[in-house]
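Team,

Forwarding the record for the chain on the shared tracking sheet. I've put the sequence and predicted structure together so nobody has to dig through attachments.
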Amino acid sequence: MEKRKSKTMINIVLLITYVCLTVLGLLLVRMGGEQQLAISERVISLQFNILTLLGFLSYAISFVLFMVIIPRFNLSYISPITTGAVFVLTILASWLILREKIDILQWLGIGAILAGIVLMNIRRS
């Protein structure tokens, strides 16, 4: 019983870490959006700042972490939940940190996503 509880807690920590790293990666790439793409004489040059590189690193780590998470859950269950959580937290972080405008339809969408996550977690007897 104790072993199962410990395994469940590890899975929850992995899920939260995955979602946070994904959102952080997206935010950092957006904040470091100063990269320049210059095409000259058949050469493509990309220049990144530190925020962009940290964002890519965070996003890459979250991808590897998701590869660890997938075998631990039913894919039809975990994919919609994590995707919904990433959507909601990305919108909220964009609103709070980047001061992006969120319209009423986006707020309604957040509510629908949260309702879907709750419905997916209702256990049948």
